[in-house]
Design goal:
four-stranded antiparallel β-sheet; about 35% strand; 12 strands; 3 helices; about 20% helix; alpha+beta; about 190 residues
């Protein structure tokens, strides 16, 4: 694959040239590549079929995202050089957010105590949910965390219920992004 720069003859060219080369546009760049070939006798595996289905869903999400003017603006604004908002939306669909850390040092089992969740996504985390379970697995409380005003990778959850058996309790933090992907982290106190 070759990248063409400052050549007025092929700048902006698209499509195939004979059956040997294809011109592609990536942002402001014109790229020339060898024509792809297909093996007509190839039978995909189950894993390959699942991957194709996932890529089809990602393409459908990206098309829908760039048809929404607000989302298109956000994706285009965050896209690196040589990439488009479509590329970023496609990737966002394929990548789930990651909950990196749950800090429960300020959680003492009383209403008003705090839990800090560190969550990150390649585009944006839209919400973080925290659930607290007793040592026996009973759900004590669940609710949404609030994004920290300065450090936007941190989310703050304020407990609302009394937790009499703090030791052995489980905190589950779930982060969700715009396409609906979810990342989770569990922590036992």
């Amino acid at each position: 694959m070759s990248k063409i720069t400052n050549n007025l003859l092929v700048k902006g060219a698209r499509g195939k040239l004979g059956n040997q080369f294809v011109y592609k546009q990536r942002g402001d760049d014109t790229i020339i590549a060898r024509m792809p070939s297909k093996n007509k006798d190839f039978v995909p595996t189950e894993g390959q079929e699942l991957a194709r289905d996932r890529f089809t869903m990602a393409a459908n999400y990206a098309k829908g995202a760039i048809e929404n003017p607000e989302l298109k603006f956000e994706y285009d604004r965050k896209a690196p050089s040589g990439k488009t908002g479509y590329n970023l939306a496609f990737r966002d669909f394929l990548k789930a957010p990651v909950v990196k850390k749950v800090e429960a040092g300020k959680y003492n089992g009383t209403p008003g105590s705090l839990i800090v969740i560190s969550a990150k996504d390649d585009f944006r985390v839209i919400d973080v949910t925290v659930s607290i379970y007793s040592p026996t697995g009973e759900l004590l409380e669940s609710g949404n965390a609030v994004m920290h005003q300065i450090n936007r990778n941190n989310w703050i959850y304020t407990a609302v219920q009394q937790n009499p058996t703090l030791i052995g309790s489980t905190i589950v933090a779930s982060a969700r992004d715009i396409p609906g992907n979810e990342g989770r982290l569990e922590m036992i106190i």
